[in-house]
Amino acid sequence: MPPHDGLVHLKEYDVKDSNVELIGSDLDHKVKYNSAASEPAWNDGQVGVVAGLLVWRIEDFQVIPWPKGKYGQFYDGDSYIVLHSYKVGKDSDSEKLGHEIFFWLGTHTSQDEAGVAAYKTVELDEFLHGKATQYREIQESPSDAFMELFPRVQICSGGVRSGFNHVEEKPKEETLTLLRVFKHAGAKRDSVVVHEVQPTWESLDEDDVFVLDKGDKIFVWQGKKCSPMEKAKAAQVVHDMTIAKHIDVEVISQTEARSRVIVELLGGGGQDSRTTEFRRERPVHQPVQGGPTRKQLWKLSDESGRLSFSVIKEDSSISKSDLDGDDVFLINDGGKAIWVWQGSRASAVEKAAWLKVAQAYVRQLQNTEAQSAYLIPIAKVTEGEESPAFWRTVSA
């Protein structure tokens, strides 16, 4: 018997029927929604129902609720998911909610943690029936929308043991902890960053306020060019630090001769620390330094039968009338943020390709305009469910 006789071959599927073509289809959404419906983190009775903030940390591939008392505090070795649900419209009694989902990636988070955060963000959006705006947040350059969620963002060194790689949380017996307190540029509200930095005199900067905790005493070093608001926020940080332990606090201005005490505690006893200016780039900044400053509008379309990506507007304001519900558009807000807008009638191929196209666009910026372009915040919105932050970029 010939080797193939008697075998029944399965029907060969056309590529249009493949799982790639089904991405974004009703079946695809149903499968993803069923997966999301089994995630305990989304089924606490609050997600998608109650306006406000919810935060989770990725721990050992699981989505674990973050204590409400720690909202705004992040470890640089971790990945987090933040859900902001808000009432739509000016009517305070409105029951309709809008949603923004942020997945925040610490500088030292592991690849597996970042991957889980990204995947679970998409899953959470499915749980919310695809109505959420999705943001990718990088620790060094967060979006204005993210910073406006918290009156204070505190970034600590360390992280949870998770996946293949981990960063241990800092042992409590270490004696020197140095915090840098500064206003975040760009956010509408007075958002302040409290960032743990290396406890060395070279971390000091005359534009900001620094809090040095040496265990038995806390020093506050006020840079000679710091703002009154930064001084006030540093005072709040110190107050929170001393609630649990009653220790001495000394506030010293850089202009005072005694400020040398703090410099020496941080190892600055040599001539270099006496003659140099205290200048250190802020560890969190926005917009991306040296990034593209012009606005651009790009169109992603498969109308011709092949997927194409082309610029259609540059160096001018972008309005709602520039967008077409049949396609997907990418907006570069002058290096401050990259927005991907999905039209309601865009094809499944266009919708599936948005992230790869956005990443390729960022890589092009890195190679041609700014090496730091990878830090530009990326967000995706769908037609009819745009967030307020989007409409601050695109005029209605």
Automatic annotation (TrEMBL):
Record PANTHER family: SEVERIN, VILLIN
Biased composition, class Basic and acidic residues, residue ranges: 274-284
Natural source organism: Orbilia ellipsospora
GO MF, any single term: actin filament binding
Pfam family, one: Gelsolin
GO biological process annotation, one example: actin polymerization or depolymerization
Domain Gelsolin-like: 70-147, 191-242, 318-391
Protein name: Gelsolin-like domain-containing protein
SUPFAM superfamilies the UniProt entry points to: Actin depolymerizing proteins, C-terminal, gelsolin-like domain of Sec23/24
Gene Ontology cellular-component terms listed: actin cytoskeleton; cytoplasm
Domain of life (superkingdom): Eukaryota
Disordered: annotated span: 273-293
